[in-house]
Amino acid sequence: MQIRIVTPAEHESLLPGLIEVLRDSVDSGASVGFVAPPAWAEAARWWSRTLAGPDVITWVAVDDGGEPVGTVQLVLPWQDNGRHRAEIVKLMVHRHARGRGVGGRLLAAAEEEAARLGRWLLILNTRTGGEAEAIYGKRGYGEAAVIPDYAAGTDGVLYPTTIMTKVLDH
Ligand SMILES: CC(C)(COP(=O)(O)OP(=O)(O)OC[C@H]1O[C@@H](n2cnc3c(N)ncnc32)[C@H](O)[C@@H]1OP(=O)(O)O)[C@@H](O)C(=O)NCCC(=O)NCCS
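^ thats the input. predicted complex w/ coenzyme A below
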């Protein structure tokens, strides 16, 4: 297993695997922006746009065969007054690779880079009561607020989200 930052040169070769990770996560019921697994072309458009974004760093976890099994992103606010903070988004591990520490390692990699960039205030939001909330809690993220009816689930019901923060050493 290797975890690394995705470079522009490998966008195209990683795209099919990243699409699969996204589609699998949505299919598993994860709240990652989509209410149903996006069609291949829609997922490809979403990934291409995201990977090309100027203020987003994307990590990929690849298995021994080089296939993507997980990903996470760090969004860096462009505002002058927000240079100390960053948002963790789209932490996703393919179901066949879960429970083996990949998610934790991806999160650690994003935190390490955030610290290196002086982004010591980390923010994320995750479905209230979801399993990811417990994982973040274990890793030092504290609840800042709960927003009711934040996002629709794959079942069409509106669910609350918990905004969590973590302050890194600085
Ligand atoms: C959340 C997710 C990324 C975790 O990935 P993973 O590779 O299975 O996680 P890890 O194996 O690294 O586990 C991380 C920690 O969470 C714990 N954990 C894993 N699954 C858990 C579960 N279902 N319930 C409670 N804790 C769990 C592990 O014990 C581990 O803790 P430890 O390091 O103290 O042992 C993965 O379940 C996923 O992709 N879910 C769908 C997408 C999603 O909901 N993302 C969050 C968006 S905010």
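The beta strands are 2-5, 56-62, 68-75, 85-93, 121-127, 142-152, 158-167.
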